[in-house]
Design brief:
The chain is built from 4 helices and 5 strands. By secondary structure, the chain is an alpha+beta fold. It is rod-shaped and about 105 Å long.
């Protein structure tokens, strides 16, 4: 039972982490789309992000930075669309890059990988902890149920152990489970 619970918890942990990561990726895509849909025709100064866990950059088609969240002027990832991991500004980032053909812009949105993984792990651990703590309770419950179910057999074994070998008198029990009647 312990092995089964461990393996199912491990599988649940892995699939939940994957699902949380895909939800975070959808968030990055949504932020990137929001930034693509806003007008940034004039270059502007860097903005301080509301959170140190996210960064973004917007570049024109000719490579001019139009808007950034307090990052340098270099792109945080190579010019290819999609998701990737990159090291920048002292952290590892999960970066989503996309290009708008309509207004010829590149948008990069990044989230710190360490914070992202930590948040996903905290969510998953909170759901697995009850399963782990229920294991000893289930073990005690099974031990008690099997013990009480076998109590009649223990009683018959104890009574037969004290009988002498030449004592052929029948063993009498008033309240005996039907499974035990043929044994007695």
């Amino acid at each position: 039972m312990t092995l089964t619970v461990f393996l199912s918890s491990l599988r649940g942990y892995q699939s939940s982490i994957d699902k949380a990561q895909s939800i975070f990726d959808e968030q990055l895509q949504g932020v990137a789309q929001l930034l693509l849909d806003t007008d940034h025709s004039e270059p502007s100064a860097s903005l301080t992000p509301a959170s140190q866990s996210y960064i973004f950059q917007i570049f024109s088609a000719n490579g001019e930075q139009l808007l950034a969240s307090n990052t340098g002027s270099d792109a945080i990832a190579p010019l290819h669309e999609g998701f990737s991991y990159h090291n920048a500004y002292g952290y590892r980032w999960r970066v989503y890059a996309t290009q708008s053909m309509q207004n010829q812009r590149w948008v990069y949105v990044g989230e710190r990988a360490d914070l992202r993984f930590s948040l996903a792990e905290n969510i998953v651990i909170e759901s697995i902890i009850p399963v782990i703590f229920s294991l000893p309770i289930a073990a005690l419950l099974i031990w008690w149920l099997i013990g009480s179910g076998l109590s009649a057999l223990k009683r018959v074994a104890k009574d037969l152990a004290v009988k002498q070998a030449d004592d052929l008198s029948p063993v009498q029990y008033a309240a005996l489970p039907t499974e035990m009647s043929s044994l007695v």
